Amino acid sequence: MFAAVWSVGWKGVSLWRAVRNESPGWFVALLVTNTLGVLDAIYLFAVDADIRARKEIEQWTLLETDEPEQLGHTTET
Question: What integer pLDDT is reported at residue 19 of this predicted model?
Fold first, then answer.
């Protein structure tokens, strides 16, 4: 019973974050695997943390430089 509750908790949070990060590949991988929270923890502590750090740096850069948001464009026009 404990393992099921543990796994569902990790899976719920990791799936929610994968959707918010627009990571369909990770969402499917997390949805179809059952690793008792191991893969979910890897996603949350490694991949999600990296995505959040990049977004934070981007927001800080935009605020400091008064540049408009690039809206997904990788090069300036």
Answer: 93
Distance between CA 51 and CA 68 in Å, rounded?
A: 20
Q: Which long-range contacts (CB under 8 A, 24 or more apart) does 30-35 make?
A: 34/7
Looking at this protein, which amino acid is placed at residue 38? V
pLDDT confidence tier of residue 15, bands split at 50, 70 and 90: very high
Residue 57, helix vs strand vs coil: helix
Rounded to whole angstroms, what are the CA distances from 64 to 31, 51, 60? Answer: 39, 20, 6
Q: Is 21 helix (H, G, I), strand (E, B) or coil?
A: coil
